[in-house]
Amino acid sequence: MALLPDRVVRGLLFDRDDTLVVDVPYNADPELVVPVAGAARAVATARAAGLRIGVVTNQGVIAKGWATRDQVDATNQRVDDLVGPFDVWCVCPHGKDDGCRCRKPQPGMVLDAAERLGLDPAELVVVGDIGADVGAALAAGAQGVLVPTDRTRAEEVAAATTVAATIEEAVALVVERAARTEA
Fold this sequence. Notes:
The protein has 6 helices and 5 strands, in the order E-H-E-H-E-H-E-H-E-H-H. Helix 1 runs parallel beside helix 6. It is α/β, with parallel strands linked by helices.
């Protein structure tokens, strides 16, 4: 499966947990941040290709009161230090029942990132490990690439238009599409 052939791609957004870094449930401790294999190389490849890059991440730990926004921001800074740098970070601090516009699979963070990057949402690809990541991309008019983990449900994989085995494979697909559309 591949990205849509008629789309210009100028930006790439990543989910944080289980996409860029090993998921530690409700992590707000910078010392626990461990990049997934290939994440730093993938981000460097996207940057070298001239793509604008960012992160869109649900952080319900804030809504639960288990961490402050400052703690989450410090954790995100550690991700940025180890894997980035990223042009933009968008964080949803809400819980799944809060009814916000930003929590994936809602499109709010993707739309906000597009605006902050100066791109049309249709020029973005979102890479994530669950259906909510791909759903947010589609709801915003972007494209999605699913990189399944052991926690990704089979129905999410079956529903995804584009699936990659690794973050590096996902970025290679995006970079290839970006190069073809710029030619």
